[in-house]
């Protein structure tokens, strides 16, 4: 089985002329000439990016998903490859319903008729890792049942091994191999893919996102029914909405399209800067719109997280961009540790200015902030800036949100919508309100620590290093005593001079 898979991959590589990537080094040029002579029948006139996309599509869903992930790594990928791979669509034929039913019955330990009042055998959606069926619980609640593909873990492990081997070859023989770090990219892909294989993890992410927006009137997240969930099955509330790509149907439902587009921007910034927990796969297939104008989020397999430090530096970066303060952008990159500490601020500032100025001369609604980030990632290479994985997910999400917003409302000014929100958020983090908020958050910690301080101090004073502490204090006392003698001498001289001057004046 494994040998057949290797042979298929090798055949596809040769068929689409992908040996161009592996044998691009001058040391292996003779091999490529030989292959071109032997495989004279193949057509390699199409651009290399298009041939790579077609090859990944022919290799199957895991390779398609890998290509999708590569398209987001524009900090590493050449532009032509990233643009072409972004066209990959994760459209996978469903697996037989009989397999889905067998997996569900094995998971629940009883016939499906005793678990659900109704189960639709025809899946409503199918992707590379799982597929979704509609059903109804015994009490009548409508649900969506997500089921992992049978044997998908084994297939993924095999394909990941092959991808890693291919990456090692690229790293060794392709001219750009070491700079693009293909093995690190495969390792990152492996991590995200294994996360998607655990549906309990996805269910927990959905539950967290729902809790974050519990009081919001902008976003709906399905309820998770935990009693029916496991690592290979997730059962959640069935959502009724219009796919966000069907703009005319949304408009016909009476939804304010301009408000909807602006709400999408607010949802994004709320997830990123308020919660530090965001849906990182917001393509049109995972977003619907309810009849009342609220967004519906679906598929929570890929979620991004940010620390408080990341959030603060990102907000400062965004606001500095809005104000065209390139020096501050450069300073924030260095302060955050994203750029090496020895980076010259003026050089980084000049590089950032060269990227942004030509773009900012356009009307703001014509500016893609996602594209600005991509150009900055590419420019940052020569400064040794390592792009953080969480920022790559953020960039991908921002591009998705921007695309959705402009699809809904071509006049959407993403920057104008975002700036007031960011400035308000920053005012809540910095200054008096930020200080009060921090004190409130730290109060429980201080309340536990303060009663312990006398005991901790006593233990410290009785430490075995107390003799050393006494020596230090004695030395300090002697130095202080010597300094005090000099001060007394100087004071006496000054006092005598003052008395003499006063006495002379009285005479």
Automatic annotation (TrEMBL):
Q: In which pathway does it act?
A: Cofactor biosynthesis; ubiquinone biosynthesis [regulation]
Domain ABC1 atypical kinase-like: from-to ranges: 87-333
Question: Any one Gene Ontology biological process term?
Answer: ubiquinone biosynthetic process
Read off the InterPro entries from this record. ABC1_dom (IPR004147), Kinase-like_dom_sf (IPR011009), UbiB (IPR010232), UbiB_bact (IPR045308), UbiB_kinase (IPR050154)
- Record-annotated membrane-spanning stretches: 486-506
CDD domains for the chain = UbiB
- Give this protein's Gene Ontology molecular function annotations: ATP binding; kinase activity
What Pfam family is a match for this entry? ABC1
- Domain of life, source organism: Bacteria
Transit peptide in keyword set: no
Keywords in alphabetical order, please: ATP-binding, Cell inner membrane, Cell membrane, Kinase, Membrane, Nucleotide-binding, Transferase, Transmembrane, Transmembrane helix, Ubiquinone biosynthesis
Q: Which SUPFAM superfamilies match?
A: Protein kinase-like (PK-like)
Name the NCBIfam families for this protein: PRK04750.1 (NF003404), UbiB (TIGR01982)
Q: Which family does the similarity line name?
A: Belongs to the protein kinase superfamily. ADCK protein kinase family.
The name under which this protein is listed is ABC1 atypical kinase-like domain-containing protein
């Amino acid at each position: 089985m494994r040998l057949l898979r290797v042979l298929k991959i090798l055949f596809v590589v040769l068929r689409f002329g992908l040996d161009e990537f592996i044998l691009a080094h001058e040391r292996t040029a003779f091999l490529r000439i030989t292959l071109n002579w032997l495989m004279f029948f193949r057509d390699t006139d199409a651009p290399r990016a298009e041939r790579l996309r077609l090859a990944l599509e022919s290799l199957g869903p895991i390779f398609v998903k890998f290509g999708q992930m590569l398209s987001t790594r524009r900090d590493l990928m050449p532009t032509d490859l990233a643009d072409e791979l972004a066209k990959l669509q994760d459209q996978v034929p469903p697996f037989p319903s009989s397999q889905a039913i067998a997996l569900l019955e094995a998971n629940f330990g009883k016939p499906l008729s005793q678990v659900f009042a109704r189960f639709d055998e025809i899946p409503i959606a199918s992707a590379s890792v799982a597929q979704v069926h509609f059903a109804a619980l015994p009490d009548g609640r409508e649900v969506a049942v997500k089921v992992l593909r049978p044997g998908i873990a084994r297939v993924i492990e095999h394909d990941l091994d092959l991808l890693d081997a291919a990456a090692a070859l690229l790293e060794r023989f392709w001219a750009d191999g070491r700079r693009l770090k293909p093995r690190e990219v495969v390792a990152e892909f492996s991590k995200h893919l294994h996360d998607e294989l655990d549906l309990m993890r996805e269910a927990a992410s959905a539950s967290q996102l729902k809790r974050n927006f519990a009081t919001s009137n902008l976003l709906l997240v399905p309820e998770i029914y935990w009693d029916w969930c496991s690592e290979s099955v997730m059962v959640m509330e069935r959502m009724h909405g219009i796919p966000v790509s069907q703009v005319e149907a949304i408009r016909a439902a009476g939804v304010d399209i301009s408000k909807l587009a602006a709400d999408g921007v607010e949802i994004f910034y709320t997830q990123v800067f308020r919660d530090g927990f965001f849906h990182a796969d917001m393509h049109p297939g995972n977003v619907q719109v309810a009849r009342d104008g609220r967004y519906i989020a679906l598929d929570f397999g890929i979620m991004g997280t940010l620390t408080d430090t990341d959030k603060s530096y990102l907000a400062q970066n965004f606001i500095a961009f809005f104000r065209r303060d390139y020096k501050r952008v450069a300073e924030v990159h260095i302060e955050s540790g994203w750029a090496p500490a020895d980076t010259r601020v003026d050089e980084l500032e000049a590089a950032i200015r060269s990227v942004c100025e030509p773009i900012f001369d356009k009307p703001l609604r014509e500016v893609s902030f996602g594209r600005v980030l991509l150009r900055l990632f590419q420019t940052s290479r020569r400064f040794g800036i390592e792009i953080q994985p969480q920022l790559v997910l953020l960039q991908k999400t921002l591009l998705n949100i921007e695309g959705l917003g402009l699809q809904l409302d071509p006049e959407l000014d993403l920057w104008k919508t975002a700036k007031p929100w960011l400035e308000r958020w920053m005012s809540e983090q910095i200054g008096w309100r930020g200080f009060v908020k921090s004190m409130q958050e730290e109060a429980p910690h201080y309340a536990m620590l303060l009663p312990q301080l006398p005991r901790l101090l006593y233990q410290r004073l009785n430490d075995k290093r107390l003799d050393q502490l006494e020596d230090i204090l004695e030395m300090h006392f002697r130095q202080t005593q010597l300094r005090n003698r000099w001060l007394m001498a100087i004071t006496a001289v000054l006092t005598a001079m003052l008395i003499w001057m006063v006495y002379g004046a009285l005479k």
